[in-house]
Give the backbone structure.
Amino acid sequence: MKTRFRPVLLLALLFAAATLYLSSLPSAALPWFTKCEGGSPAWLDTLVEEIKVLGYPGFQLSVADVNGQRMDCAAGWSSPIPGTAPLNLNHRMRYASLSKILTSSVAIQLIDEGLLNPELHLVELLKMTGPFVDERMASIRIDDLLRHKAGFDRALTPDPMMQPHPWCPGNLAALKSIRLDHDPGSHFAYANIGYCLLGAVISGIEDKSLDQVFHDRLLNPLSLQSIRALRHGEIFQDEPQAFFDDAHESQNDLLAIDYAASLATGAWSGTASDFMSLLISLFARNEHALLSDQSQTLIFKVAPECDFNKWRTCHGYGFYKYKPVGQKAMYWRDGSLPGVTAFAAVFEDGTKVVFLANGRTYDWMASNDRIGQLLYQLITGDRSGRQNLQ
């Protein structure tokens, strides 16, 4: 017995030592596994090297070029321990704020159908009467919610949607006692709470749960099986393990989010490939598109006086617009949660990209900006903004 036991013990010790050694290595220290279907972008290796530097375990990438050719790729690992199981094309990734594309798309559909008007006031649509502690609350329009100009500012007031028990959408009467940070319509400030309120309006117009609205209008017609809402405190079996900046956040922070309250803002998950299928169907130029030509123009509309050369500045009804002088326009949105990074964009020539990673840095906005600007440069060939990545 002792003779047979020793090799088993030795193998176990070697495995434990190897695992410990691999876990001590930075993600950039090992070659990354990559797999693509439909071909791979010529610049994939450049993207891989940049993501290694950020320390993310891996990512899914989906690209559709101007001719409609699809390229779906997975790179890296499904765990923060490099060299373990590779990330694959079927792993479920969290979409974070890419979920807002569902919300804005349905809002635009309702506007196109005459069921919603961007000039209507929020409190009117919610059938809410005063008095309001802040009288400005009564002047918030649907237009303001879509453009993140409703007067909420998470830089000044903590984001209620990131609290354990957000008041939206379950207790909308809280609007009567809240003070706004800015006059509605006067100031751009990205606000999850604004899109939650927009989701409440959509649910009321349709007289359905928001989950059902999204399935009926967007997901079921396309049979996008992977796209599902997340649940509080749960990790799906097909999700990869995420990288967390342990000094600041952990998986507990990710699981503490009230996803049932976040359906309009950040509660959806699926593959990069299925999210690309959604983008293609939303923005197709044929009778099968989920958004009409008029609706597509509206969702990409951004105030013309805005400086499109500035990053993360010009937000319209669904996306930021970025257009360096003399270059192509890109309409984009990103997302971030503990252990989650997401980015999606539609270019003016029809090129589309979706990027989903199982990790984030605590300084997530700078990292997201780095990824988004790099993808713009890789896809367009414009290197004029390369200094922004240093």
Remarks:
- The longest strand covers residues 330-337.
- The longest helix spans residues 2-24.
